Write the structure tokens for this entry.
Amino acid sequence: MNGQSKAIEALSIRVAPSIHTIDAVQWDACAGVNKMDANPFVRHAFLAALEDSGSVTSETGWQPQHLALESPNGVILACAPLYLKDHSYGEYVFDWGWANAYERAGGQYYPKLQCSIPFTPATGPRLMVRKGCTQSEANDLKKVLLTGMIELADRLNVSSLHITFPNDQDIEVATEAGLLPRVGQQFHWKNDGYDSFDAFLDALSSRKRKNIRKEREKAAASDVKISAVSGNEITPRHWDAFYRFYRLTSDRKWGQAYLSRSFFDLLSERMGEQVVLIMGEENGEFVCGALNLLGGDTLFGRNWGTVVHYPMLHFEVCYYRAIEFAIERGLSWVEAGAQGPHKLQRGYLPRKTYSAHWIADPGFRTAIKQYLGQERCAVEEDVEALGELGPFKRTGKP
């Protein structure tokens, strides 16, 4: 047995019933280099805000089971956000059909384990390793985390384990470990070195460029004053208004609001430097807003809402102002969240997303594997076809 294998054997995995039972500094040492470089959603502060606000608890169907892989002297070398769930709400990788099929066949689909960020369809690290490891060492630690998840799944007698929106490195390790990969798609905007919004428009075909200019003119005709605020600029007045918008959107789309009002205060208090609120104001009152989080080279669009219905205001606040912000800050990407083929003609192109799945029942696993193979082909064809329909000049963008 080599030295590395012996070192791995000396490690222990701890299951944490709350993010607060894991040291924040050690967790964040695995989650990112520093606050602004880190994916905002895997930061200890973000996960703690979810728990402390009552948005993520066993009562809401998200029971924390976070994993911490520790050395003999208590140093956390790897960790993962993990939850025991009794439903499939707030995940954005839909498995309701799987649950129905399994239960019709006499099985019990819930509870299940979910390695994810609640209510957040944003790609990021899920099997997080302390910086300074070689790639080989990091992969070994990730495999140990996966083994720990599956052992926990066996011990809890759950039907399945799901890792949703992992980054490329994590989906590769999970697939090598035998989990079933699933492919999805979102629409993301890529900064090709634009120095202004007009430079971005110049990369578009003439017709699409004119359409966007017309949409922005219509939004401007509403006389809603739009501005971006971040950090200490955000006040309780902003959050009171935004929470109203969020509740209206949630009630219309999902029938319930996942996030409590106090979550937004905690988010602002603990990581306000990564919060970007784009708000619209009319006659001294906020009338619409979009919540974005900043991390590394990406602006992540999360939630939107409004109490007015002016033409193209949604596109202006959520998409075009996000692009302007990204260009001004030199960011590489804007991720505008789940769904939305309408984003395509506004410069957001299809990009693959991933999830990985462990199914306890061998027969059910075989059925899921077959289904995922068929689904993967359809999604990849869709991504390719939609990419061809993008608004960019043929000579200006592949």
In short: Residues 3-185+351-388 form a domain with the Aminopeptidase fold (CATH 3.40.630.30). The chain has two domains: 3-185+351-388, 192-331.
